[in-house]
Structure formats: C-alpha cells, structure tokens
C-alpha cells in the first residue's frame, strides 16, 4: 500500500501529539515539559483545522441559493447604490456624477 503525500502531515501531527502526551509525565525538566506541551497543543490546533473544520462543512450545495452575480439584472449600478465609508478624520464632499 502506497502512502499518499496528503496524509504525511496528518501522520506527523498525530505522532507528535502522541509523543508529547506520553513523554510529559516522564519529564522532570520544566523547559522540556513546556516544549512538549507546546508541541502537543500545536498538533491539536493543526488537527482541528485539518480534520474538524472540513468535516463540519456541508458537502451538498443548494443550487437555488447560489448568487448569480447579477446576471438577471443589468450589469451596472448607480452611484446612489454604492456604500461609501464615512471616515471621521477625512472630510469629503459628495459629488454628483
């Protein structure tokens, strides 16, 4: 069985997580303990972003809810329809086009 390259970071992260959790109780040096805790927490965050977030996203798309980019309307807008941020430190006059 050939290993895919996409699974290598996942396997490395799982190995680092297991190593971190198994060696932490055996260490007496505070610096090594903090290093292993950081290693384990980084692996947990990586696994969260790689595994859990894609798993929670929906796989099917409702075609009626897809935005059609204004294809049903003319592809232009008027200047009244544009929202402009008002910055308190800049005074700008409204100009009519």
Coarse morphology:
flat
User: Could you give a short account of the major beta sheet?
Assistant: none
Report the radius of gyration as a whole number of Å. 26 Å
Number of H- or I-type helical stretches: 2
Task: State the order of secondary-structure elements, H for helix, E for strand.
Answer: HH
What is the residue-averaged pLDDT? 70
Number of domains: 1
Keywords:
single chain; 97 residues; mainly alpha; 2 helices; 44% helix; flat
Task: Give a topology summary.
Elements: H1 8-23, H2 30-56
Helix pairs in contact: 1-2
Question: Could you characterize the architecture of this molecule?
Answer:
The structure is a single chain. The chain has one domain. The chain is built from two helices and no strands. It has helices spanning 8-23, 30-56. The termini are far apart.
How would you sum up this structure in a few lines?
This protein has 97 residues and is mainly α.
